[in-house]
Every structure is written in structure tokens, then in C-alpha cells.
Specification:
It contains eleven helices and eight strands. The protein is of the alpha/beta class. The protein has an eight-stranded mixed β-sheet with strand order 3-4-2-5-1-6-7-8, with helices on both faces. Helix 8 links the parallel strand 7 and strand 8.
Length: 244
């Protein structure tokens, strides 16, 4: 079993669409029992997978042990893919982690889920916070979407510096160029500087995911972005199985 976190300090880099497409590839293409856990209060992954609306905000209460996790897991429309949906209570998650003062609470919470699923994909909220630190300690691999730009690259460097300075064990980071337009000179220059990073091309079909409430593979299997996400997932699977 492996936990794959999709994380970025910056918003608007395609984090949630990346998480949804990777989780879909894990379940449908690799036939892995997969859980997508939406930890972003904005709930974009939950929206794309058309999560059921709940009467009460319970995501934080679940982490506090007040509600059994089994009551919040929802089956998706796709075999072997389940969802833990986000809600507005996640806005207070940093305060909750600070109050309980348990550095490995997320890792311990994930332990029983590791017995139920082969792959868990975490869609993390942007920013460097106590929640993100908990995730970085609990994950086996962290996917970092990066738009080819100076600010996005700077944000990635700051995360790496923070992790290195802490001196604590953390998951390896895998930067992924996202929303790439090879017609733009600036994008081509950044790609040339990091030829080893996976590349997800700009696509109007990615933008349609929120309108259709579907992963790319469910409505645009031939588009270049879907093919790139599939290739990225195959690389992740190879990396995880080799490590195991």
C-alpha cells in the first residue's frame, strides 16, 4: 500500500485535477483499490467526482475520532475508486493539529486505511502549514504540480528547503510540469532546464472536468493530457513497486 500526496504551496496549479486523474488511473487502469481523500476545503476533487452533499460538515470530526471513517467514505462511479469528500470544516484543520500537538496524527489515522486500500491519493490544500507537514510525513510520495514559471519554481524550492532544514524524514518530491503550452518560449525554456520532470500539456478538456464532473479518462481518453496523466501514473506505479 502507498500514500501519494498531490501538494503545492501555490493554488491554481492544477492540483485537484491531477489528484483526480491519478486516482482514476490507479483504480481503472491499474485495477488498484484506491481512495481519493480530498483535504482541500474548496473541495474541487469532491466536486469533480460528484460527491454526495452532506447535511453537516464532518471532515474534521472524523479526524478527531468523533465519527467513524467508514461512515464518510463514498463509492465513486468507478470500480475500485472510493472518495473521502472535503467540507468547510477542514478550514480549521491546522488549528486542530496544533491543539492536539501530535506530529504524526495523520500517519496514525492512515494506518487502518492502508489495510483497506492499495493506493491512497491525498488532494492537499495549498500552502505550507501544520496540515501539509503532517501529510509530508505520512506520504510515501509527494507529487508537486508546477506551472513553468519563476514563481512556481520558487515555491517548489522553498518547500524543498523547508524539508531539508527540518532534518526530519519526509516523502520524496516528484515535480510535474502542468498546464504546459509548448508554443510559449518561456515554457520551453523551463522544460529544457528540467528535462527529467514529467509534463502534462495544456488542454481544454482538463477545464471541462469541472463542467462534466468526470475524470479525463471517462470522457476524453484520446486527449494528450489524459495520455500524459496515464504515463505519469505508470511511472509512479513502477517507482512504488520497485521501492516495495
Amino acid at each position: 500500500m502507498a500514500v501519494i500526496a498531490v501538494y503545492s504551496m501555490k493554488g491554481g496549479v492544477g492540483k485537484s485535477t491531477t489528484a483526480v486523474n491519478l486516482a482514476w488511473a490507479s483504480a481503472v487502469q491499474s485495477s488498484r483499490s484506491t481512495l481519493l481523500w480530498d483535504l482541500d476545503p474548496q473541495g474541487a476533487s469532491s466536486f469533480i467526482l460528484d460527491a454526495r452533499v452532506r447535511k453537516k460538515d464532518q471532515a474534521q470530526a472524523m479526524l478527531a475520532g468523533e465519527i467513524p471513517v467508514e461512515k464518510r467514505i463514498q463509492p465513486s462511479a468507478y470500480p475500485k475508486l472510493d472518495l473521502l469528500a472535503a467540507d468547510i470544516s477542514l478550514r480549521g484543520l491546522d488549528r486542530f493539529f496544533f491543539q492536539i500537538n501530535r506530529r504524526k496524527h495523520m500517519a496514525k489515522f492512515l494506518l487502518p486505511l492502508r489495510d483497506q486500500y492499495e493506493r491512497i491519493v491525498l488532494d492537499c490544500a495549498p500552502g505550507l502549514s501544520e496540515t501539509s507537514e503532517q501529510v509530508l510525513r505520512a506520504a510515501d510520495l509527494v507529487i508537486v504540480p508546477v506551472i513553468p514559471s519563476a514563481l512556481a519554481e520558487r515555491a517548489l524550492a522553498e518547500v524543498q528547503q523547508f524539508l531539508d532544514a527540518s532534518g526530519k524524514k519526509h516523502a520524496p518530491l516528484l515535480p510535474v510540469f502542468n498546464m504546459v503550452d509548448r508554443r510559449r518560449k518561456l515554457h520551453r525554456e523551463y522544460l529544457a532546464q528540467h528535462p527529467q520532470w514529467p509534463v502534462i500539456p495544456m488542454s481544454s478538456d482538463v477545464e471541462k472536468m469541472t463542467d462534466r464532473n468526470l475524470p479525463l479518462g471517462a470522457f476524453a481518453p484520446r486527449c494528450a493530457a489524459h495520455q500524459a496523466f496515464s504515463q505519469l501514473w505508470r511511472g509512479i506505479e513502477k517507482r512504488l513497486t520497485t521501492k516495495a
